């Protein structure tokens, strides 16, 4: 597909939610997320020629964004970012957040415990992709996807339970 | 856990602060492992080109005996040919773009393949170029007239005691092994780790 830079940016802005959600699922740290967002945009731009219009633009964006997140590794040592808020400060902040925001925060926090493939599975499931579509996107068999997805859902529930946040 | 509710919350999340860039110019360079190797390679290209020019200029700046001068030029010519061939190959790699628009498994396999291939080209180029360099460097230092008689010709024609000859061969092999070991170790330390991480992801898919 041939698009000018501005047309491309306009097209991805329409679906910017995909990039936002993928970055939230894959990284907790804001700077890591920012790096991933930039990388996704770069890879979308570089891979634009591979989009032949057979699928929807948004489906192609999902695929590129997820694949980029999977093969992207955050910087191992970045001193200023290694600082984490003390637990009690985080909890205090959570207490003041409204209920919806808190539920989402808990979910994103729990998702960080999953591996990259489990994240891809749960994300596509939440986004409403069928088992067949997930299998096709990941290059796995539908049976394997079904088994892994069930396992991942249980694992996620266990993580949340372990973090004392059942919802 | 109600995943429909999670989906609803994710969709409704406030994204006012989340702005995409208005131009691609301001984006940082790619941080993919393969992009990092290619960036190192670009630096390497510049360094090698500068090196070739500097090494070829040297004999014109100092007075050298004929034989070491000829050997120096021949070895430098071979090294330069190999380096240029390697640089041409690297240029081809640098223009290649990894496609992340395929299936995830295919993408990972292609990434592993591309990183391995790029690393091999890189290592081969460095090792091959480095192995010929000791002879050129020896010709250069031993062949300069102001340092006395032409010791290089004797050395090159192997006019030396057997023990010295064995020591020279041993020293050369040792430096070759050292160059090979350092290059392989260094490349593996920097980039091999990414291959292992990607292979781990493949295992996660199969488990």
UniProtKB/TrEMBL annotation, chain A:
Keywords: Sigma factor, Transcription, Transcription regulation. Pfam families: Sigma70_r2, Sigma70_r4_2. Residues 107-156 form the RNA polymerase sigma factor 70 region 4 type domain. The keyword Transcription regulation applies. Residues 15-78 form the RNA polymerase sigma-70 region domain. The keyword Transcription applies. NCBIfam families: sigma70-ECF. PANTHER family: RNA POLYMERASE ECF-TYPE SIGMA FACTO, RNA POLYMERASE ECF-TYPE SIGMA FACTOR. Belongs to the sigma-70 factor family. ECF subfamily. This is RNA polymerase sigma factor. It comes from Kordia aestuariivivens.
UniProtKB/TrEMBL annotation, chain B:
Keywords: Membrane, Transmembrane, Transmembrane helix. It comes from the Bacteria. The chain crosses the membrane at residues 45-64, 70-88, 125-144, 164-182. The keyword Transmembrane helix applies. This is DUF3278 domain-containing protein. It comes from Kordia aestuariivivens.
């Amino acid at each position: 597909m041939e698009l000018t830079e501005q047309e491309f940016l306009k097209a991805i802005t329409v679906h910017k939610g995909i990039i936002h959600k993928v970055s939230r699922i894959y990284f907790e740290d804001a700077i890591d997320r920012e790096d991933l967002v930039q990388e996704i945009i770069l890879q979308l731009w570089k891979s634009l020629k591979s989009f032949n219009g057979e699928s929807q633009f948004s489906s192609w964006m999902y695929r590129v964004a997820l694949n980029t997140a999977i093969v992207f590794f955050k910087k191992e040592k970045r001193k200023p970012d290694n600082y984490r808020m003390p637990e009690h400060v985080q909890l205090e902040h959570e207490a003041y957040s409204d209920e919806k925001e808190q539920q989402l925060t808990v979910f994103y926090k729990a998702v960080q415990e999953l591996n990259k493939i489990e994240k891809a599975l749960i994300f596509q499931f939440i986004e409403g992709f069928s088992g067949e579509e997930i299998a096709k996107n990941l290059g796995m068999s539908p049976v394997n996807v079904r088994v892994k997805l069930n396992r991942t859902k249980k694992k996620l529930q266990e993580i949340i339970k372990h973090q004392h946040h059942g919802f | 856990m109600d995943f429909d509710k999670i989906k609803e919350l994710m969709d409704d999340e406030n994204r006012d602060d989340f702005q995409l860039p208005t131009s691609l110019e301001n984006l940082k360079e790619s941080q993919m492992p393969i992009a990092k190797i290619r960036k190192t390679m670009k630096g390497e290209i510049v360094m090698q080109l500068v090196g070739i020019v500097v090494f070829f200029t040297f004999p014109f700046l100092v007075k050298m005996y004929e034989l070491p001068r000829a050997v120096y030029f021949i070895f430098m010519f071979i090294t330069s040919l190999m380096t240029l061939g390697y640089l041409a190959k690297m240029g081809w790699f640098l223009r290649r773009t990894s496609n992340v628009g395929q299936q995830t498994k295919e993408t990972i396999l292609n990434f592993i393949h591309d990183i391995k291939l790029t690393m091999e080209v890189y290592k081969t180029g460095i090792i091959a170029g480095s192995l010929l360099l000791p002879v050129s460097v020896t010709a250069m230092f031993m062949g300069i007239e102001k340092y006395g008689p032409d010791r290089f010709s004797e050395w090159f024609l192997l006019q030396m005691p057997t023990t010295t000859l064995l020591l020279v061969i041993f020293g050369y092999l040792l430096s070759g092994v050292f160059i090979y070991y350092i290059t392989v170790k260094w490349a593996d330390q920097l980039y091999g780790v990414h291959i292992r991480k990607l292979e781990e992801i493949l295992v996660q898919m199969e488990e």
